[in-house]
Amino acid sequence: MSILTFEGKTYECKAGERVLDCLMRHNVMLPSSCRSGVCHTCMVRATTGTVPEAAQKGIKDTLRAQNYFLACVCEPEDDLEISMVDSAAVRQRATLVSKNLLNESVMRLRFSCETPFEYRAGQFINLVRPTDELIRSYSLASLPDESELEFHIKRVPEGRMSNWVFDDLEEGKDLEFFGPSGDCFYLPADPDAGLLLVGTGTGLAPLYGIVRDALAQGHRGPIRFFHASLATPGLYMIDVMREMASENDNMDYTPCVLHGDPPEGGKQGNVIDVVRDEMPDMAGWRIYLCGDPPIVDGLKRMCFMSGAKMQDIHSDPFVFAPQEG
């Protein structure tokens, strides 16, 4: 058992219990979202005590050196005194440059940053709503060498952040953000390997960044890109993706719908079945999956059973319940 000290009060942390869970058990609420060490929303700082190495995975070296750690994955081995993160240490500021609808329920946002921001295409960041510090994670659709950060945000019924973005966030307004996070990005180690990218809904956003990054870095192997939705109105950027495929001989783009007629050149059916039928042998392919968590999980299993190595299957790791959008 360890003792946690936070804001002048002490709490008993059971063996094997994580810091975030311990504090929640004592009705102390820290900001948190993914609860899996990915989004970094629950980052805190140890002012005394030793932080387990696993609790600092993915955190910048400069923050690790200051004893910052992730409360949701930290199982303390020692007594810890902790404090909230200094926002200035991890946050940056961005200005909304433009917002426009990509379809009836997906908004494209573009932000300019006050200072240079380093990330890999396909990673995600955490946007902070200024009115109440509400935090949500969104994948980047832009490339690091572009002047603006791009996001595709879907309106979610009762979604606190997404409805605010659609209805109240105005061009010219500033937001804070922090990150980047995630390991779903392109590496040019084998430019002749096949790339498979499958996304549902706004899972297109990170894949749009990844495929453009791969092409910009001279990827030579075949690229198969599938984007799926329940029906054709849920798809977006079809013409952009078709143009990209027509300009690159090694790329093929397939829009997919579960119900109704697909767009020209598309497929109708469950995207897992569509991809399996189109690609029965995935041995040696590098795979990127983004979107609805149950579908992503099904795609992972299918790709593995079709010959792909698990270490070659990458996916967006963060998940939120629909009412939290």
How would you describe this structure to a colleague?
There is one protein chain. With 325 residues, this protein is α/β, with parallel strands linked by helices. It folds into three domains: 2-88, Roll (Ubiquitin-like (UB roll)); 91-181, Translation factors (Elongation Factor Tu (Ef-tu), domain 3); 195-316, Rossmann fold (3-Layer(aba) Sandwich), CATH 3.40.50.80. The chain is 21% helix and 30% strand. The protein has eight helices and 17 strands. The chain has helices at 19-25, 61-64, 87-90, 160-167, 204-216, 238-247, 271-278, 293-305; strands spanning 2-6, 9-13, 43-48, 68-70, 80-84, 92-103, 106-113, 124-128, 135-139, 149-154, 174-181, 195-200, 223-229, 251-257, 267-268, 286-290, 313-315. Helix 5 (204-216) links the parallel strand 12 and strand 13. The relative contact order is 0.12.
Topology, pairings included?
Elements: E1 2-6, E2 9-13, H1 19-25, E3 43-48, H2 61-64, E4 68-70, E5 80-84, H3 87-90, E6 92-103, E7 106-113, E8 124-128, E9 135-139, E10 149-154, H4 160-167, E11 174-181, E12 195-200, H5 204-216, E13 223-229, H6 238-247, E14 251-257, E15 267-268, H7 271-278, E16 286-290, H8 293-305, E17 313-315
Parallel strand pairs: 1-5, 12-13, 12-16, 13-14, 14-15, 16-17
Antiparallel strand pairs: 1-2, 3-4, 3-5, 6-7, 6-11, 7-10, 8-9, 8-11
